[in-house]
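Please produce the structure of this protein holding fe (ii) ion.
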Amino acid sequence: MLVKLIHQQHLALQELFARHQEALLQGHFDIADEWLQHFAYCQKAHMQIEEAYLFPEFAKIEHKSKWDVSLYVKEHAKIKILFQNIINDLNWLSEQELNESQRRRNIIALLDKEKTLKGLNQHHEEREEEAMLIELDAQLDARQLKELQVDIKMTWAEVMGVVKDKAG
Ligand SMILES: [Fe+2]
Ligand SMILES: [Fe+2]
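Below is the modeled complex.
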């Protein structure tokens, strides 16, 4: 099932982001940046998978939900921009000469900002899992679903392989 396959990718992404936040909370900016880069790389690949394999199919079927493919496309664009802002903020923060209190307050501010983004992203993922993917699973024929799953699994395995190599 596509919904299960993509849910696993969403979980893998959440785990990478959680590792970034753990490091950020401890003030380990280098490590936080490393995990954020891994996350951004995988998130981008995940979106490309959806855009290449799923959105074109979703555009073709009849929708039961009120959201059509353009909404998902717009959300991808918005999420990408907001994550880029976080990367920029973290780079800025790691270059500042701050005392302990200022450092902690800046970390709190960044975590607050990330909370907004996490909410938006979570909303997007839930919409995919509860609408788009359910509809694709219900409407595409078995052979087509199988082909999509094979392609998606292979592409994602390559992406995760790169991160595992880099993460050591
Ligand atoms: Fe998506
Ligand atoms: Fe997704």
